[in-house]
Amino acid sequence: MHDRDLLNRYAPAIASLLDPLPLNELGPGAPNETAHARLEALTDAAMWPGQRIVDDDLAACCRAGLWLLHDFLDESHQISQRIDTATGSFWHGIMHRREGDYSNAKYWFRRVGPRHAVFEALAAELQHTGGQRRDTLIEQAIGSHDRWDAARFVDLCQAAAGRGTDDEMLCRRVQQREWRLLFDDCYRGAVENG
Fold first, then answer.
1. Spatial contact of 94 and 178, defined as CB atoms under 8 Å apart
2. Is 147 helix (H, G, I), strand (E, B) or coil?
3. What is the pLDDT of residues 34-57, one digit of tens each?
4. Whole-structure pTM value
5. Which residues fall within 8 angstroms of residue 69, CB to CB, at 6 or more apart?
6. Which of 35, 43, 46, 65 has its CA 20 to 30 A from that of 127?
């Protein structure tokens, strides 16, 4: 990601971890060791300078998301499994999907429920995505009701992971967009007047 407007939404400590935004593997990937110390050192004050945290769970979700973004699945899991909210379950589901534990990922996505705001935003964005692959893979993930189907996307990722196909690349781009929408939702919701 080299989108300056997007990076300007976040504190410098966060923006530095997002530039460039990785296009993660569908699988676990290799931890980005150069980001480890910065991730460990993140404080609320650095993540939201001059702002008051109003939702500790969403703040923790941001941490889980950042660890996941840099392929530290264990660290992300340690955080997300302690967050008993739909959004915590969302991060937990993504982590299990990335580690290849697809049935467990579906379990956590069922705990999210069918109507998470990020599901709706993702489906809306993908409905307007052009390209040849739109009518196949993305239609499968959105389904006939124009709603995001997280379990169906888990199946698509499982079928595409490690194959080196166009479907795998498209799933990776959708996964990246999913991460961006979810992280932004958490980041804004964690603080007063976010």
1. yes
2. coil
3. 999 999 999 999 999 999 999 999
4. 0.91
5. 17, 18, 21, 22, 24, 179, 183
6. 65
